[in-house]
Design a protein that fits this description.
Length: 236
């Protein structure tokens, strides 16, 4: 499977771990590139990969063609999931994982991260990947295709650290949906580190700091750094 177009950067020479980060609906891979600098994880060189989702008509947006990991049919975003689109995107992320393996980065040094739709794909691919991953970061998002998880989940990733964060004022992915997703994972025995912030469908400075600490722990970087107080507003 050919790789999706993507942006790639490293915090130093000879990266020892990789973070594959998926954007939200209507955005692109550039959306989260500025966060790399704010994480300040240069103590251990990391490779960041930001794929661009394919363009497709999105039903909820009147069929407008935009970058999307899958279609959304109605305002109740968890209903009538686009299983075909979700699984297609899962395979696309698996292709990036496979490519990292050819570069000498084992699965245990790979983190899947995503915001909103991208977080859905991070959970979808990460929970089902055949080998243990370093971690999963799922921001302002939810668990899709839950009914198939019990038969498809990989035992290798049962203990993989999962970081989930959500805005308490999120009008796009309701907080209750994020909480229900966390509860569904915890009920299945997954280790979920859950945080909420007083913000809308966004990423705030405190959250970026938390992500940096999580990556430092699971990917092997060291150190903590101060963050600015700005709020970044990616697509959903």
């Amino acid at each position: 499977m050919s790789l999706l177009p993507h942006i790639e950067l490293a915090t130093g020479p000879d990266p020892v771990a990789t973070v594959i980060w998926m954007h939200g609906l209507g955005a692109d891979g550039w959306d989260f590139v500025p966060i790399v600098r704010e994480l300040e994880l240069a103590d251990v060189p990391l490779r960041f990969i930001f794929p661009h989702a394919p363009t497709r008509p999105v039903t909820i947006n009147n069929g407008y063609v935009m970058r999307a990991w899958y279609d959304i049919a109605q305002s109740d975003i968890a209903r009538l999931p686009d299983e075909g689109g979700i699984r297609e995107s899962q395979r696309s992320i698996e292709a990036f994982i496979d490519r990292e393996r050819t570069r000498g980065v084992e699965a245990a040094r790979i983190v899947l991260a995503g915001f909103s739709q991208g977080g859905v794909i991070a959970l979808q691919a990460g929970l089902r990947h055949r080998e243990r991953l370093a971690g999963i970061v799922a921001l302002s998002t939810y668990l899709a295709l839950e009914d198939s998880l019990d038969r498809e989940a990989s035992p290798a990733n049962k203990a993989t650290p999962i970081l989930m964060a959500h805005g308490t004022q999120d009008p796009v992915v309701p907080l209750q949906l994020g909480e229900a997703s966390r509860e569904a994972l915890v009920a299945r025995g997954y280790r979920v580190d859950w945080h909420t912030y007083p913000m809308p469908h966004a990423v705030c400075a405190e959250e970026v700091e938390m992500i940096g600490n999580f990556l430092a722990r699971v990917a092997g970087a060291q150190g903590e750094t101060p963050r600015s107080s700005s709020i970044l507003l990616p697509g959903r």
